[in-house]
Amino acid sequence: MSFVNTSSQIITEQAAAHLTPQAGYIFTGVFAILIFANVVGQWLKRKNGADNATISNLNARIYAWWLMTLVLLVAFWFGKTGTVALFFLISFAALREFMTLVYRRRSDYYSMVVCFYLLLPVQYYFVYDGWYGMFSIFIPVYGFLVLPIIASLSGQTAHFLERAAKTQWMSMICIFCLSHVPALMFLNLDDFDSSGNILLLMFLIFVVQASDVLQYVWGKLVGGAKIMPSLSPSKTISGTVGGILSATALAALLSPITPFSHGQAVAIGFVICLMGFFGGLVMSAIKRDYGVKDWGNMIRGHGGMLDRVDSICFAAPVFFHIVRYYWNG
Fold this sequence. Notes:
Blueprint: H1 2-18, H2 21-48, H3 53-77, H4 79-102, H5 109-129, H6 132-152, H7 160-177, H8 180-183, H9 197-222, H10 237-253, H11 262-289, H12 305-327
Helix pairs in contact: 2-3, 3-4, 4-5, 4-7, 5-6, 5-7, 6-7, 9-10, 9-11, 9-12, 10-11, 11-12
GO cellular component, one term: plasma membrane
GO molecular function, one term: phosphatidate cytidylyltransferase activity
Keywords: Membrane, Nucleotidyltransferase, Transferase, Transmembrane, Transmembrane helix
C-alpha cells in the first residue's frame, strides 16, 4: 500500500508541475466569470420564467462552458500527455460527426477505416513524438494519396471524385488541423520556457472561443444586418466586428503569458479570430449543404463537437506556424 500511495503521490506532483502559476490564475479567472454568468443566468431565469427560449439557451451555454473548462483543466493538469490525449479524443469525436453527416455509400467503408485506425493514431503519434517533419506532411501528402487509392479499390466509380474529396477534407479538418493544438506543446521557443507552452494553447483557445462567444453577445445586444444569412443566419455584422475586436483586445491583455509583445499579440489575435470566423462560415456551409443545423448533440446547448471546434480547426494551423516560424528556437 505504501508503494501505491507513493506512486500516486509522485504522479500527482508531476502532473501538478505541468500547470504553471499563470495557467492557474487564468483558470481561476475563467471560473470566476462562469460563476458570475451562472448567477446572472439563474436570476434571469427566475425573472423571465423557465420557458424563455433565449434565457434557456444562455443557461445551456453556461453549463456547456463549465463542462468544457473542467475538461481542459484536467487535460492541462497532466501536461503534454493529457493534452495530446484530449485532442486525440476531440479529433475522434469530430471525425465521427463528420463521417455520420457525409457517409452515404458502403463502398466508402474502408476509406473511413483508414481515417479512424491509421491516419488518426499515426498523426497523433507524430505529434506526441515531436516529429515535426512527419507531423506536417503525413496527412497532406500520404493521407491525400492513400485515401483515393483505397476508394478506387472498391471498384465503384459513381461520384468517385466527390467521395474521395470528402474523405480527404474530413481527415484534413478533423485530424490534421486539430492536431496543431497539442503540437504547440512541443515547440522550443526563443527566451520562453517550454514548460509554459501550455499558455500558448490557452491563448489560442481562449481568444478564438472568446471571439465566438462575444460575436454572439454583440449580435444579441446590437442586432442589425446579417453578415452572411445563407451560411449563418444568426451572425450579424455588428456581432462579427464587435466580437473579433473584443477578442483581439483580450489577446493584448493575455500577451504577458506569451512570448509576444502587446502589438504582436494584437496582430496574432486578430488573425486567429478572423480565421476562426471564416472557419465557422465554411463549416456552416457544409451543414447547410446537408440540411442540418448542428453537427450533433454531444454538448447540450452547443450542438456537436465540431460546432465547438470549427473555428479552432482553421485558426490552429495558422497560429502554430506563425509561432514556429517567428519564435521557434
